[in-house]
Amino acid sequence: MIKLKSKRFCRGSFKFGCGGGNGGSSNVKGGEKGCGNNNNFSEIKWELRPGGMLVQKRETGSSIGEGLITIRVSTVSQWHDTSIEATSTFGELKMILSLVTSLEPREQRLLFKGKEREDDEFLHMVGVRDKDKVLLLEDPAIKEMKKLHRLGGNQQIGSAYRTISV
């Protein structure tokens, strides 16, 4: 296992001869080496990705609604504009749509670019962007079960044979 030590790096313009000894800066603190002008000194932050890769942490603007996208969800007869985070899954989109359409998430089938998408697929990984269209269909098997259930309560199924007397 590798042990990583935190190091400070300078951003901005680098000058040659600035890293060895005290030769680039006269106001160097304890163990830190000076680099260029210390007035615009900032520390680079690192993060460990799930795959084990160490990368520089992204700077976010932290503005409200930065990761939100608007998706137009179209059913057979109507459409809904839904705002959701770009890093959400299709399962999370189904949960939001269940509030709007009265269809449970297991009854919904979402199609994007002509393919049915699974609940664990991420929107941004599939390529869903702002103002894209997603098609919502009701699962045909569950639709048929509902139809049979309604018929079963109102009408009894007769026997498949008749007695013929001669």
Question: Briefly, what is this?
Answer:
The chain is α+β, with helices and mostly antiparallel strands and 166 residues long. It has three helices and seven strands, in the order ββββαββαβα.
Overview of this structure, please?
By secondary structure, the chain is of the alpha+beta class. Helix content is 19%, strand content 20%. A 5-stranded mixed beta sheet has the order 4-3-7-5-6. The termini are far apart. Mean pLDDT is 76; it is low at 12-35.
Provide the succession of SSEs. EEEEHEEHEH
Which range best describes the helical content: under 10%, 10-25%, 25-40%, 40-55%, 55-70% or over 70%? Answer: 10-25%
Q: How far apart are the termini?
A: 91 Å
The proportion of residues in beta strands is 15-25%
Number of strands: 7
Helix and strand composition category: alpha+beta
If you average the pLDDT, what whole number results?
Answer: 76
Please report the number of helical segments: 3
The largest beta-sheet arranges its strands as 4-3-7-5-6
Poorly predicted runs: 12-35
Radius of gyration: 30 Å
State the shape: elongated
Sheet with the most strands? Answer: 5 strands, mixed
